[in-house]
Amino acid sequence: MEQLDAAFGAMADPTRRAILARLAQGEATVMELAEPFQMTQPAISQHLKVLEDAGLITSRVVGTKRPRRLVREGIDAIDQWMAMLRKGMEKSYDRLDGVLAAMESEKKRKGRR
Amino acid sequence: MSKMTLKTEGDTHIVVTRHFAASPEAVYRAHTDPKIVQKWLLGPEGWTMPVCISDARPGGQIRYEWANGNGKGNGFYLTGEYIELEPFGRIVHVERMFLPQQTPDNHVETTFEPDGDGTLMTIRMMLPDAKTRAAMLATNMEQGMEASYVRLERMMEG
Questions:
Q1: pLDDT tens, B19-57?
Q2: What is the overall mean pLDDT for chain B?
Q3: Whether A88 and B149 lie within 8 Å, measured CB to CB
Q4: Closest Cα in chain A to B139
Q5: Which residue of A has its CA nearest to B29?
Q6: What is the CATH number of domain A2-112?
Q7: Burial letters for A9-36: b for 16+ Cβ neighbours within 10 Å, e otherwise?
Q8: What does the domain layout of chain A look like in residue ranges?
Q9: How far is A88 from chain B (nearest CA, A)?
């Protein structure tokens, strides 16, 4: 629950969403991630920390570099959450199909009288 | 079975579409007449709406209260106001959830257009900013999702 809150909070920022989109294509270093933005590396590092705390990305050490990549479980949790929300909504509309069909047959029944 | 689509549009919009095999008038009534809303706007199985107020005129109040079947539903509800109503084509309203903490106002435009033998409904939610949209996605989202949220929250707290 808290992890999901953190994940959605992390995704509320356009720069961080762009970073996630970039990492969806594969691992990247801070320098590579900073390139498309008019931002300093410390500013990007701050965004990366938010994403990391939210469980959406992770890093490993390669020499002096720490390339970042997406965390499968973090992204899956969001997908599952959205799918479940969507399911509740679909359930309501499926129910409405039935209600509309009943309204229609009621109208026909009254019309025949 | 008709398929619902849900997609984001720009930074602050969420758009949901759904086809119904009924006239725009019937679908419009199903969204504004409290006696009908009460029957279907329930999310997952097991939930009911003991209080359903929908005063369908500009400035009219909306209030939906949900409970789950085993009586453990602890009062989560939605309030709102109608802004514009064009029978049977368009509704503009604002709503916010109480979970019990209040979620940000969600401005919603719902249109009903003839589509073949039925109706295409399009819900366009206009949120103040991307942050609010993310918060909405994380919480109530839109009609019918509220119950899912509460149920899911319980499951996760499990």
A1: 999 999 999 999 999 999 999 998 878 888 999 999 999
A2: 79
A3: yes
A4: A85
A5: A100
A6: 1.10.10.10
A7: bbbbbebbbebbebbeeeebebeebbee
A8: 2-112
A9: 4
